[in-house]
Structure formats: structure tokens, C-alpha cells
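Problem 3 from the worked examples.
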Amino acid sequence: MLSTTSLAAGAPLNAETWADFVARLRHDCVGEGVREHCTADAAFLVEKRVWHAVPEDHSDTMRVYTDGHDEALEAFLAGLDAEQLAALDQAVEGAFSEADSYDMAQAMAKLYPESTLYHAMERWEFVCQHFTQSAADAFIKRKKHDYPDGLRVYVDATSYSWELNAIKAAILSGRIGLVPVLAAQAAAKGE
């Protein structure tokens, strides 16, 4: 469990939060955490799930788009009452859920012209990057309400990100650290 006195939770930079950050970085980049993601050169990317339309033969997943809101066909149907479901069945001359996608789309266009039924495939898009797994997890916990289709942590290898790796190595070796004089000056300024 991440402490509320952590940089990952938005706490200010001070000796305690710096030590916590370095410990988490050490865990994820040279410690036990490496086993979980199989690279010491890790960057923790938060990605959001997005759906995009694809040809029917590329996906069995059906989605409904209505006025900026996108949902699974099952969720759309679950929001309908018995009369509305019966109208869909009648429009396809059988069970709507067993109709082919063309007939489903035609029925939806007729009964719900503001909605579009489409075949979909999920894709994951970059949102932000973190030095540690716990910081990425904290972001997801804090912001998941803004991403209704979901967020995930993707661990990317930074093997060829020489600057990033050099900075992480310098932090872990103590060559880069919190300078007490600067920290005291920042505290005095209220930063």
C-alpha cells in the first residue's frame, strides 16, 4: 500500500519522500520487482483502452456509439426495457442477439438512428509515464473515473534510453540525490 506521504501520491519532495522514491525505484529496477516485469530498464506506462471500428471479419466484438458515449452491445441491450428488446427482435424477424451483424446494424439504424453499431477492436494508447510501478498504480487509482473503458500499466524496456537509464543509475548509486541545502531553501520559500 502506497503511503500518502509519497511523491507518487502527490506529497511534496523532502527527505522522507525522496527516500521512499529511491526505495521504490530500487525495488522496481534492481530488486525483487524486476522478476515481475522481466527488465531492470523499466518505464511504467499508463495506457487507456480505446475502441476502433474494424471490418466484420476482424472482430466479433460489437460496440454501440451514441452521442460521444461508447459501450458494449451487451451493455446497450441491458439498458433497454422488454418492449424495446421486442422491437429489435421484430426488426430482425427473429432473435436480435442471433441475427447477423448486418441485420443488427439495420435494425439499430431504424430504431435508434442516433446510435451506431460497429465491429470493434481494442487498442491501448499512452496516457503518462512513471519511474515506478507504484506511481503508475497510484495514477490509475486516482484517475480511473476519467477513463471508463479502463487503464492499465504497461512495462516498457528502456534499454536504449541511455539518458533515462543513466539518471536512474545515478539516483540508485547516490550520485544524484536530494541536496539538504536546496531542500531547506525550498521549504523556506513554501515550495
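Problem 4, a separate protein:
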Amino acid sequence: MMWPTSLWSRSRGRAVLDATDREMVQGAAQQGRQRAYEDAMTVRAAILLDVDPTNAECTVQVDGPDGGPAPAQIVGPTRYYPGDRIMVLFPGGRGCLVLGRFAGNYDDWHVVGSDGEPAFTAGWGAAAGTVALGANGPAKPMFTKRGDQVELRGQGERSSGSAQTIFRLPDGYRPENDLLVQAATTLGAPMILSIGNTGNVAVPSGTTFGVLDGVVFTARPPIVSE
């Protein structure tokens, strides 16, 4: 059967037009998918390059060839430092937010005897000449946690009584079992410091001075109640 020339031309033109339409639709769909991917919230790994003194804004280098440097905002009360491995959220083309640190968030130093912090056992206090956090000099007794590692710092002194416990660590900062760790009574004089799984940080009987600098241990995992 022979098709009329005019009908054949129109049919062939329609086929060409249909193919062009399909390509246009496919291209638009691809662009739409790409735009949706770019606008979707994604979390990526990064390195923190620098952070401002307010701990509110920073510069990050996101893993991969197209990763920055890029400005970012910090959310949450965690203190960050250059070189930290972090997680960054891209909330759909509106910059990026620092969510947290891979090794666990850095804790603030908790200075024993300060408002809202554990108190000294009766008779104990910060040793004479010790200074607050960040000052130049030996530290007051304090503790912090990085990931699951608890670190102690500072010097305590007993001025009265016979209590062996300097202070008590709060839950979340206590070891799984009672620990005996190397410490010092004064610079150069060794001492075995006791850290109980109830949180008591104690010196041997008769000791009136304790140096906590450099004591590090693994905290007990949190107890989840059913």
C-alpha cells in the first residue's frame, strides 16, 4: 500500500517531533532529579579548618574533590577545635551546619566545687596556689570527657578531718569497675589514686595532697532502663 506523499511527510515529521519531545522531557526530568538531589538534606564528613572565638561559625573542608573550604554554622553547645573530624549537614542549598564530632563531642571542664558541679568532700579543697581553667598555673581539681575517655586534672588538698575521698564523679563519668591508678601526692612523690565505680576519687589513708594531672580512664557505658 502506498501512502500519499503529504501524509507520509506529516507522519515522519510527527515521529521526529515525538523523539524531540521525549528528549526534552527526559532532559527536564534529569534536571529535576539533579535539583532535588542538590536541594535534599545531606550529611557529609568534613574537617574543621578554623573556628571563631564565639564557637558559632567556622570554616570546613568537606571530604571529596568539591568540598570547600566552605563557611559553616555550629549548632549545639559543643566546643570545636581546628582539625576536628566532624559531620556537616547541608539543608538544601542554605549553607551548612556542623552537627557533631566523629570521636564524640568534647565536654566542658567541670571544676570541682564550682556552682552546679560536684562538691569537695568535707575537709578537702583546691590546693593553695591552684588557678581557674585557662589561667597560667597549676589547676584546681576538675574533670572532662572526650568520647568515652574521662580525664582528671588539678591538685586537691585536705586541710581538716580524715576523709580519703576528694570528690565524687557524677554518673556518666564513672569507671565500670573500681580502679587503682598511678598519681602523685606532691610533684615527684608517687601515689595510688582510687577511682570507684560509684564515682569516689580517693587517696590512700593519711594522704593530705593529691595531684590528678594525667589520670585518664574509660567511662562506664550509660545504663539504659527498660
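Solution to problem 4. The chain has a mean pLDDT of 82. The CA atoms of residues 159 and 208 lie 7 Å apart.
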